[in-house]
Every structure is written in C-alpha cells, then in structure tokens.
Amino acid sequence: MTTTDRIMYLIIVGAGRIGNRVIELATGDGHEVVVIEKNTDLAEQTSSNYDCLVINDDASKMDVLEEAGLEKADALITTTNDDSTNLLVMMLGRRYAVPRLLSSVREPDHISLFDELEIDFVESPHRLNGEFLYKTIQRPGIKDYMRLDGGAEIVEIKLAEESSLIGLTILEAIESEKIADDLIIVAIYRHGELIIPRGNTTFEAGDTVTVLSKEGIGKDIIQTLKTQ
Q1: Residues 218, 57: Cα–Cα separation, whole Å
Q2: Among 51, 94, 138, 186, which residue's beta carbon has the most beta carbons within 10 A?
Q3: The pTM of the whole model exceeds 0.85
C-alpha cells in the first residue's frame, strides 16, 4: 500500500516517456489505472507491459473520458506533448469535479492558463518527469520532488497556516517531536528570499520548506508540515 493508505482510481492521458513512468509507478503500487493513448503503437505497448485498461482514442473527447470512468476517478493526469489537449482534458475533469487534476505543461507561455484554472501542473523542464507527477498525486502539497540514491528524498512543501510548526523554531519542533530529529530542513524560501535555516530559525505560515529525509518523505511528514 502507498502513502495514500488506499487504492486509487487513476486516469492517465498519454503513454509517452512521462506517462509511461506514471503508469509504471501507479500499477506497481496496485492502483486501478486507466490509460488513454491516441497512438496505436503506444497503446498496444502499454497494454502489453502493464496491468491496466488502455483506451486507444483521443482523450479530448468527452465520451472517451466517460468511458474511462471519469465520474469515479480519484485523479486525472495528463502527460501529452500538446498543451491544448492537456488543458481541455483538465477543463473536462473540472466539470466532473475530479478531486485531483494534474498536468504537464510544455510551453512556459501557457502556464498562466493552467494557473487560472487552479490546476496542479509541472512547468519547468527539469521537473517534467513521471515520478514527480505521481508523487504529487500521492502527496498533495508537494511543490517539488527529487529522489536520491539509497532511497533518500528531497521535497519542497508550503507551510499551511494551520501547521503546528508555525511560530516554532526548528530546534523547538525537533525537541517537541513534531519533526523527527533525522529530518533535515535544507532551506526555507520566504517572500521570495532564501533563508539558510539554523536551530533558532522560526517557521512562518507561507514558508516553502525544503526537506531532506534519508528514509523517504512519508505521508506523516507531509501532514505535519501542512497541518497538525
């Protein structure tokens, strides 16, 4: 079982390099996955390689998304090379009130369109990878993600106003066991400025905190940073 603590129903649009990685991770974790891929060769390859339903059609058509089970989807992820297709699919997902919408964005000029719809997206090329998309679906609130050798992970997450860390110093948070002592606060971005954290650095609402964990960033860590 993954950090979501339950099996999710995921619709993944696009089975190229990025989509393929998302499919690999999601099916490997036992989630119920439906893939929509317009390219016949990619669709057949995906069907052969993974335990998932593959629909060889155009995801920008409402009836195709309905066939994929949009009304019961926990998340809709678009990974195509066409931003217009990605945007349209996200709009249709919004119409069906899909709980999580996440898309890749190829052209920086198109970012504002996704931002206006309040859709989670991966915009910069170095972050445009399937693992980041999948981790974002698993762990809402993550702003950036990197996996290191040996299982360690680095994430960026924005501190919510409800977080119990607000007003505490890093040392106080460790002493009160709100964050584990083996969790390293690498950096804090506040009002666009980089803060190199020390033991007496105080957490503030809205801080974007970069965290390193040797054992990987679990649900409990994300929840602590966001709320609790």
Answers
A1: 36
A2: 138
A3: no
Query: At 36, which amino acid appears?
Result: I
Work out whether the CA dihedral 88, 89, 91, 96 comes out positive or negative: positive
In the chain the domains, ranked by start, together with CATH numbers, are 9-138 (3.40.50.720), 147-226 (3.30.70.1450)
**pLDDT digits 0-9 by tens, 57-71:** 999 999 999 999 999
Count of residues in the chain: 228
DSSP symbol at 169: B
Angle (CA) 56 60 64, round 5°:
50
Report the interhelical angle of 17-28 vs 130-138 (nearest 10°): 40
Give the whole-angstrom CA distance, residue 215 versus residue 4: 17
Residue stretches of the chain with pLDDT short of 50: 1-4, 124-128, 227-228
